[in-house]
C-alpha cells in the first residue's frame, strides 16, 4: 500500500520566504520605520508564526542591508542615508542600461503593447500606495525579463526594493505638499517608447533618465527629513 505524504518538505522554507517577504515589504513601505527597534517575538505574534522563521527571515534581511539584529532577540530597521542612495543608483546605472538594450531587442510587440497600456495606473492618485509601487516594480521586472538571468533578477530585485524605500520618502513629501500621490509616468513611458523604437542608445539613455528621476525624488525626501 502506498503511503500518503502528510506534509510537504518545502513547506518550512515556504513559511520563511513568506515571512521574509512580508517583513521586507513592511520595511520598504515604511510601516517599520528607519531606526525603529522591534522584538522578534512581537513580529512573530503579529504574523501568526513561530519565532524560528522570523529569526531566519531577519538573517536574510540583515544580509540585504535592511536591518540589524540586536542582542536580546530584537532588531532595528536600517536608517536612510544619502551616500547609500547614491550607491544604489550608481549600481543600477551600471547594470540596467545594457540589460534593457538586450531585453528591448527580444521584446515581442504585443508585450510592449500590453506594458504601454498598463501605464495608466501611474496617473491614478486614488490607488493605494502599496499597490502602486508593487505594480511599478512588476512593470520593470517585465521590461527586463526577456534578457535577464536569474542572477540579474536577484540583484535588481534587491536594488529596486532598496531604492523604493527612498523613493517612497520622496513621494510622501510630494503627498504632503500637494494632497495627492500621483506617480510621474513620464520616465516609464519614455522607456517603453525607447524599447519600441529599437534604438539601443535611446534605450540606454531612457534607462539612465529613469534612474536619475528616482534619485531626484528620493533626494528631495531625504532633504526634507534631515
Chart the SSEs and their pairings:
Layout: H1 11-29, E1 37-39, H2 40-47, H3 51-63, E2 67-70, E3 74-77, H4 82-106, H5 109-118, H6 129-144, H7 150-178, H8 186-197, H9 200-225
Helix pairs in contact: 1-3, 2-3, 4-7, 4-9, 5-8, 6-7, 7-9, 8-9
Descriptive report:
By secondary structure, the protein is mainly α. The protein is built from nine helices and three strands; from the N terminus they run αβααββαααααα. Helix content is 70%, strand content 5%. Helix 4 runs antiparallel to helix 9 and helix 5 packs antiparallel against helix 8. The chain is globular and about 55 Å long. The chain starts with 10 loop residues before the first helix and ends with a helix. The mean pLDDT is 86.
Q: What is the beta-strand fraction?
A: under 5%
C-alpha-based Rg, rounded: 19 Å
Number of helices: 9
In which order are the strands of the major sheet placed? 1-3-2
Describe the sheet with the most strands. 3 strands, antiparallel
Instruction: Give average pLDDT, whole number.
Output: 86
Order of helices and strands: HEHHEEHHHHHH
Number of strands: 3
Unreliable parts: none
Distance between the termini: 69 Å
Assign a percent range to the helix content. 55-70%
Broad structural category: mainly alpha
Q: Which descriptors apply to this entry?
A:
226 residues; three-stranded antiparallel β-sheet; 5% strand; mainly alpha
Quick structural gist:
This protein has 226 residues and is mostly helical. It is built from nine helices and three strands. A hairpin with a 3-residue loop joins strand 2 and strand 3.
Amino acid at each position: 500500500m502506498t503511503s500518503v505524504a502528510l506534509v510537504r518538505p518545502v513547506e518550512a522554507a515556504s513559511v520563511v520566504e513568506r515571512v521574509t517577504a512580508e517583513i521586507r515589504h513592511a520595511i520598504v513601505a515604511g510601516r517599520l520605520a528607519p531606526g525603529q527597534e522591534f522584538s522578534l517575538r512581537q513580529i512573530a505574534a503579529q504574523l501568526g508564526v513561530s519565532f524560528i522563521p522570523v529569526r531566519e527571515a531577519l538573517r536574510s534581511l540583515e544580509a540585504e542591508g535592511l536591518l540589524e539584529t540586536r542582542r536580546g532577540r530584537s532588531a532595528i530597521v536600517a536608517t536612510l542615508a544619502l551616500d547609500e542612495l547614491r550607491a544604489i543608483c550608481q549600481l543600477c546605472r551600471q547594470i540596467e542600461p545594457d540589460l534593457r538594450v538586450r531585453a528591448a531587442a527580444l521584446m515581442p510587440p504585443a508585450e510592449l503593447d500590453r506594458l504601454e497600456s498598463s501605464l495608466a495606473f501611474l496617473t491614478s492618485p486614488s490607488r493605494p500606495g502599496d499597490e502602486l509601487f508593487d505594480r511599478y516594480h512588476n512593470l520593470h521586472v517585465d521590461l527586463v525579463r526577456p534578457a535577464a538571468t536569474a542572477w540579474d533578477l536577484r540583484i535588481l530585485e534587491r536594488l529596486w526594493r532598496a531604492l523604493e524605500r527612498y523613493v517612497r520618502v520622496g513621494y510622501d513629501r510630494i503627498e504632503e505638499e500637494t494632497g495627492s500621490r500621483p506617480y510621474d509616468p513620464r520616465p516609464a513611458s519614455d522607456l517603453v517608447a525607447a524599447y519600441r523604437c529599437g534604438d539601443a542608445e535611446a534605450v540606454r539613455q531612457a534607462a539612465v533618465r529613469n534612474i536619475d528621476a528616482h534619485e531626484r525624488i528620493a533626494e528631495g525626501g531625504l532633504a526634507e527629513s534631515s
